[in-house]
Amino acid sequence: MTRKTGSCLCGAVRVSAEIGPRKITACHCGQCRTWTGGGPYYSTSVVDPVIEGEAHVGIYVASEWGERGFCKTCGTTLFWKMKDRPIHNLAAGLFDDQSDLEVTAEIFCDRRAEWQAPLPHATQSTEAQEHDLLADYLAAQKGDQP
Q: Is the per-residue pLDDT at 54 higher than 90?
């Protein structure tokens, strides 16, 4: 794990986090494609994220289970997370040093824009596969509640 730092476009939000090597996930779901302006949402898994400038972080409740974070000043995409859960991924483009990162997975690949080619060496999962994983996760979370 390496601690990396970065910021949004205007610098109002600064981030730092521990990042494992070389792992970026590209999400092609309809929400992510719209949120990023056409391409996938490129995210990297993080541990111990620190966000400075939280007053500038806006939260959009995108579904009954997910929230999207963005800079309220410049609009930069910051993160997607499960509601009422800590942040586990940040937008890969936030980080100053991206030299050791690589896309290793594409999710919702059946929703990829027709003009975009699959990414080499990335695993592929479909919308149905991701919804199955989400259903399993949500069922497990219900088991955690008293």
A: yes
